[in-house]
């Protein structure tokens, strides 16, 4: 039986890509019974009963990860688009996205848009934050309106990878996609100033070939809670904490009130940014306060 990859899901159909052709398929009823659902990005086994008819997805191969919102599997990295102005740069929201991505083992690329709207002082401040996140180990790029170098900046990062776009609304995700894939011609939502976010226009999930890789044109991340993360796992979602965890006196140190904590010491000496530690504490409290699941 042939194997392929689901590149699009729409109106109950799955569009399976296999060696340059796309086959429209239905999922087997057995998936529903098992509570399984084929996702865009899944590698599947499918069958075509007769020429010209729809296919049937018979088997879903094991995934390396899967997201609920957007519903997509086998993601390598996320292009996190955050504006530095209109709406203003939101540090805690950025860290929230980074934690969710790290928990799914998805590599984040931070893309700061609308750099041209900043004053000289604001530019210096944003460049300092860019330096901080690069030192943590993240890829960080800044983009400008009608940036002629944008494709060149992104092409080597996208090649051979499956990338999902994420970030606040109204920050230029559709503009970015339009630059990468002009034929998409996505409507860019005007910013809703009352909410400080844009009106999102994308409706279904689809993987599109761009720069030698696949980019997911998705309705974006709407789930940024930490329901799937246990308090002991949060350290691993902060790379600069994770690197120091073995230096803490106590195994499984939560970096709260424990003595001889290497993370707290690094914050004291300025080797870990105070704002990152404060965000960690806030997220940890959120996880601790979470109602137990039965």
Automatic annotation (TrEMBL):
InterPro entries: G_CP_dom, NA-bd_OB-fold, P-loop_NTPase, Ribosome_biogen_GTPase_RsgA, RsgA_GTPase_dom, RsgA_N
Gene Ontology molecular function: any one: GTPase activity
Gene Ontology CC entries for this record: cytoplasm
Subcellular location(s) per record: Cytoplasm
EC supergroup of this enzyme: hydrolase
The keyword Transmembrane helix is assigned to this record: no
The keyword Secreted appears for this protein: no
Residues annotated for GTP binding in this entry: 113-116, 167-175
Binding site for Zn(2+): 248, 253, 255, 261
Enzyme Commission code: 3.6.1.-
SUBUNIT field: Monomer. Associates with 30S ribosomal subunit, binds 16S rRNA.
Main function: One of several proteins that assist in the late maturation steps of the functional core of the 30S ribosomal subunit. Helps release RbfA from mature subunits. May play a role in the assembly of ribosomal proteins into the subunit. Circularly permuted GTPase that catalyzes slow GTP hydrolysis, GTPase activity is stimulated by the 30S ribosomal subunit.
Protein name stated in the entry: Small ribosomal subunit biogenesis GTPase RsgA
Organism: Ureibacillus terrenus
Gene, per the UniProt record: rsgA
């Amino acid at each position: 039986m042939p194997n392929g990859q689901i590149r699009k899901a729409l109106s109950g159909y799955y569009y399976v890509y296999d060696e340059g052709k796309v086959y429209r398929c239905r999922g087997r009823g057995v998936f529903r019974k098992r509570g399984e659902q084929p996702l865009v990005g899944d590698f599947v086994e499918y069958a075509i009963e007769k020429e010209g008819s729809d296919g049937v997805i018979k088997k879903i191969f094991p995934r390396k990860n899967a997201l609920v919102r957007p519903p997509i599997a086998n993601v390598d990295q996320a292009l996190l688009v955050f504006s530095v102005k209109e709406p203003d740069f939101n540090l805690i929201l950025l860290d929230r996205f980074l934690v969710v991505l790290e928990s799914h083992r998805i590599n984040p690329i931070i893309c700061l848009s609308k750099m041209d709207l900043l004053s000289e002082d604001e530019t210096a401040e944003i460049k300092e934050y860019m330096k901080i996140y690069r030192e943590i180990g993240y890829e960080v790029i800044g983009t400008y309106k009608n940036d002629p170098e944008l494709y060149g900046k992104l092409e080597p990062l996208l090649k051979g990878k499956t990338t999902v776009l994420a970030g606040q609304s109204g920050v230029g995700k559709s503009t970015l996609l339009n630059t990468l894939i002009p034929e998409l011609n996505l409507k860019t939502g005007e910013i809703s100033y009352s909410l400080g976010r844009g009106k999102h226009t994308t409706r279904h999930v689809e993987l599109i070939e761009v720069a030698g890789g696949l980019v997911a044109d998705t309705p974006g991340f709407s789930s940024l809670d930490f329901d799937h993360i246990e308090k002991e796992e949060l350290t691993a979602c902060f790379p600069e904490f994770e690197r120091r965890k073995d230096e803490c006196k106590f195994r499984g140190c939560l970096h709260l009130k424990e003595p001889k904590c290497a993370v707290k010491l690094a914050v004291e000496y300025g080797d870990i940014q105070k704002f990152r530690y404060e965000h960690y504490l806030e997220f940890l409290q959120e996880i601790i306060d979470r109602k137990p699941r039965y």
